[in-house]
Amino acid sequence: MNRSAISRVPGFLAGAVSAGIKKRDRKDLALIFSEVPACAAGVFTRNRVPAAPVLLDRERIARGRAQAVVANSGNANACTGKRGLQDAENTTRLAAQALGVDETLVLALSTGVIGVPLNMDAIETAVPKLAGGLRPDGFFEVAEAIMTTDTFAKIVSRRAEADGKAFSVTAVAKGAGMIRPDMATMLCVVCTDMGGPAGPLQRALTDAVAKSFNTITVDGDTSTNDTVLVLANGLSGLSLEGPGCASAFQQVLDEMLMSLALQIVEDAEGATKSVKISVRGAQNREDARAVAYAVAESPLVKTALYGQDANWGRIMAAVGRSGAAVDAEAVDVFFDNVRVVARGQGLGPEAEEMASNVLKQKQFCIVIDLGVGRAGFVVHTCDLSIDYVKINADYRT
Amino acid sequence: MNRSAISRVPGFLAGAVSAGIKKRDRKDLALIFSEVPACAAGVFTRNRVPAAPVLLDRERIARGRAQAVVANSGNANACTGKRGLQDAENTTRLAAQALGVDETLVLALSTGVIGVPLNMDAIETAVPKLAGGLRPDGFFEVAEAIMTTDTFAKIVSRRAEADGKAFSVTAVAKGAGMIRPDMATMLCVVCTDMGGPAGPLQRALTDAVAKSFNTITVDGDTSTNDTVLVLANGLSGLSLEGPGCASAFQQVLDEMLMSLALQIVEDAEGATKSVKISVRGAQNREDARAVAYAVAESPLVKTALYGQDANWGRIMAAVGRSGAAVDAEAVDVFFDNVRVVARGQGLGPEAEEMASNVLKQKQFCIVIDLGVGRAGFVVHTCDLSIDYVKINADYRT
Lengths: 397, 397
Prior knowledge:
The structure is a homodimer.
Chain A: E1 12-17, E2 29-44, H1 52-61, E3 65-75, H2 81-99, E4 106-113, H3 120-132, H4 139-145, E5 154-162, E6 165-174, E7 187-192, H5 198-211, E8 227-232, H6 245-266, E9 274-282, H7 285-296, H8 299-306, H9 312-321, E10 332-335, E11 338-342, E12 345-346, H10 349-359, E13 363-369, E14 375-382, H11 386-394
Helix pairs in contact in A: 1-2, 2-3, 5-6, 7-9
């Protein structure tokens, strides 16, 4: 399959070059450009040590319009102070000049090492070539250029219809949590020829992010750079206020972001398994969420998953310390369809042996039924492997 | 040094046997006995899936009196339902009969695998021999018998004076957090000939635990069995209400529990380093605590410590996601006395090289000055090594 062919979105051009920010000759500078100004919305990291491009984008996106996104890998431009902010602004100015658009319509993304100034000479030299080489089928190159230690490029494309017309959506992403050392971290850009306005666009994005990226965790380490952007240029002739458009777009966006989120978990550092943690029977959604994250981020649960050990005792201990309202004697635990805990007690060696077969799979689900209510929450995570430690211990040394 | 000789406490007898609860012929059943009824206090896990002995002890200790503690390793007696509670009661009844004391004056401790019923036949057979072999210098054997995957026995003894008289304190402990797979987990018994009453004894214990065991973290996994008990038999002729006695006892207790807490971190599963995380300059103590734990439990920080990498970017990212009030441009970070971050920005390769020498040590301190207030908090932790993953992935399989 030619992945680049299916990813075109009317009015959008994209491309990437090797600017020399990363070591070795890998693509590290990418540009996405809409031929007409687009409605824009964004969701950003809640980390209180946000990177310079996050600060810049937050301010610019408040006006609900953008026309280009310039992204670099190899350097997070985080913890770089005033100089970092100037570097981010200068990067967008260089791109704006090359594209002939207003500087304030250009957004910036960075991912890579924290605390090192951007190589602005390299960026200044590369931008004209980058802008001159943009193509309608350049999205796959963008997905490649924002990779850090990702092992595969993450891109999704969809076409759908609403109100009798077609619209296209392409989204690229990289990373997850702070799964990647110094490689802060999770970035995503969504491009569509659906139209705005910005308010409904922001609500659609916030909603889709809550259901996708905000339900995955690799190591619980939220990065300084997490950013999800959507640019909607309206060239389909549709707008989110047209009949059926908002729901059609929401459905497509939800599916696409979930697909990218699952790709990120699949590609998590050192991970050998993708595991869905599904909590139900909680008194309320907050409790269900607390239990799901306590289990998904427990080092003991994650190492047991790596060891293919149906060690439900560690799951029960994590449930118990989650802070949620828990009645130990009401809890059931399943690995896929195999029940290993009924009303807080283990079902014995036979059940565990069946469960250990489930754990041999690359993907499976752990269901925790708290048995005290009707609320639920789902989190997607991975195991904690020897390779995770190796990669993260050795990264900079 | 003959460790058992220094640990005697007037009126206390202790000992341990191999009952066959653990695999192999290791000691796994221990008993501590005060020849006279003692004042008693306890601090227990906040895990909402507490083990049976925790439920039993909580109820019994409410009366402020105890005369014996029976402890087993190899089985946590957690997630064992009604049968587990009966087994804990029966264990204390067997000990009470052998010692000739009231059953309700016997407390129980368990540590080991979750979800498996206790081998009551083994305990019933072993208790008479155990009770018959108690000795004044048997505390070291108790410390050995409650070990699970601990690599050394944890025991401290002190003599001190107050109000013109001497008093003795001996404490044994094992484990930490849920650092040990299925080996739930942190147990400690303090024996002293200081006297009560129970109210001041409980306050002294709660205070000492807050400053010691509650400032260590290995993997953030609070166990189902954590218990700290103190028995004060008063045979020194002193009481906590005597002049200077409360403060003298508190000082000794603080030092002893901190010593045991640090022994636990030193012995943490797979750990190669003991690291003190000292946060200062926070707006309030809760913020300082949140930052300290976010850094101490970050898998990325812990793997960098293992790799001896002065990777302050990961520390800044953890600070930023801690939920505390943080001004990125006010934060300083030190490794021991080497400053690597000033006002949120890195101080360059030279500082990092000096810092990497600090990280080669087995013990060091990371100081994080938030620069926005005067509150502080200290947490003791360890690194996350390949061995941690190996041990926890392979434990049951």
